[in-house]
């Protein structure tokens, strides 16, 4: 009986051994398939969220995507329809390339690139035809040398012109297209007989592509760079206002400011002023494209887009102070909450008045009207006066006491230690310089070890003395962080004047309507800005 049971157990073990490896492989593949399907589901969900977020942030992106698809379909007909393909041939591909390169998100950007491309193509084709006309009257060798010299000279001159600031800013793309078209036509003319037909077909194909792009950008749900710049300026003012208000409220209401240090880079305060500080290149690009746009509404008669750039520069300077104010929430040494509470009301009132002023400036730009005459109200001056009175009522916090005298004495003692050490070091060097080279070297070698030991002992003795300074002067040091915070608030009020001046200048140049609290739809009181003000605001190529 025992033998039978042993044989059955052995048989079962042998069976498991033969089928164990396939089972393991099968389970491994199942696990991999499950992991792959889970990753694909997560990827699909992440892709859908990204698509939804991009369209939700700005629905105009969806419209622009459909416009590009429609333009590409239209120019593809030059290839797909037989009669059109016979007329243009393989040059029809240039129309497709033009749509892909020229059609941009805003009408100003499309106009800038489209006109640059058209102008560059016309100039390059004309010059290439002239070079070919002169070269065909020469022998083969002379013709090759002449074409090579022309390519070298034109390429060098055009490339050097790209470094001119005005051309770099406005016509850089046109110069690139000029170089590309000129070299393609000139070099290929050496082997191709009918160069005029090449120029003709390529010019018409590019013209059709540019015409379709301009039609879509200007007439089919147009997106204006000027409006984007206008709305961007309004948004920057509102973000700064919200950042200042949130920063002051958090400083006085949060009992443990240090808990928020790790998430400060993701908070609304940081996002508010970061968008302002990062707006320089965006503002300059939008202003450039806006200068190319034609008048498209009653608000757009030669609008001073460069003045918007100046307003953006002043707002960035204003934003640097907000960054410093936010930094007061993240310092290692913080003023106790009991001390901060003494100055809470005037600081919050002051921040509230600054916020109101910034929001009024944002509303004035949004509605294209002048600022309210009471933008700097008496409440702002009263809040400043209350803060000054509150600080003067606590002289011991800001002027210190006898403990600050102890701090000064300890700092003087530390300075005396350092001065004495330097004097001894200089004295040792002067003695060594009198001795002979051999004795000076032996003495220097002997004293080097002793000097390093003395220096290390002095450093160890000096370190605990200096480390006691913040402790012995606690009454004075605990008010220093708030003093920095209050001074930055006052600096914000001072810089607010510069922001108001630039916004008022913008309203004067752009002929904003007069302020009326009862009616926001007052007609514009000025039909066109003074010539002497706006003549330098826009490039000469502006419409």
From TrEMBL:
| Subcellular location per the Swiss-Prot or TrEMBL entry | Membrane
Q: Which GO terms describe its biological process?
A: malate transport; monoatomic ion transmembrane transport
Which UniProt keywords are present, listed alphabetically? Ion channel, Ion transport, Membrane, Transmembrane, Transmembrane helix, Transport
Top-level taxon in the UniProt lineage: Eukaryota
Determine if Transport is one of this entry's keywords: yes
Membrane topology annotation? Multi-pass membrane protein
Kindly state one GO CC term assigned in the UniProt record: membrane
Q: Which Pfam families match?
A: ALMT (PF11744)
Transmembrane regions listed in the UniProt entry = 62-81, 93-111, 141-161, 173-191, 203-224
For this UniProt entry, what is the primary localization, expressed as one broad class? membrane
Family assignment from sequence similarity: Belongs to the aromatic acid exporter (TC 2.A.85) family.
Instruction: Tell me what this protein is called.
Output: Aluminum-activated malate transporter 12
Q: Which organism is it from?
A: Gossypium darwinii
